[in-house]
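Class prep. Write one:
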Amino acid sequence: QVQLGESGGGLVQAGGSLRLSCAASGPTSFSNYVVGWFRQVPNKEREFVAAISRGGGNTYYADSVQGRFTIPRDNVKSMAYLQMDSLRPEDTAIYYCAADLAGLTRLKSLPSRDDYNWGQGTQVTVSA
């Protein structure tokens, strides 16, 4: 499994922006993975936020972030990002990145799997 590390979280006012980073390492080329971002708040299941295809040509977003978040990636640097604009208090959560070789369907199912090793995530707090 690819090793992923998230960074870039922080405290921001509503309407502001943050850019999260996801650094990947491991023996398999990063370009082989579909990559996604998920978020979790206390006492709720981890939820899908966004994903990007292996080559970056296709992106997918949860309805709640469509039009406000974008998910670029840089396969040369083995990095993925989550650009978050027009942030709202309800975006407050711990954000995690994830990657899967199989594709988008399995990537989106990762929160329901017990065998996936999530990173520590990065806290995003949006004040009203």
Remarks:
- Residues 104-109 form the longest helix (6 residues).
- The helical segments are 104-109.
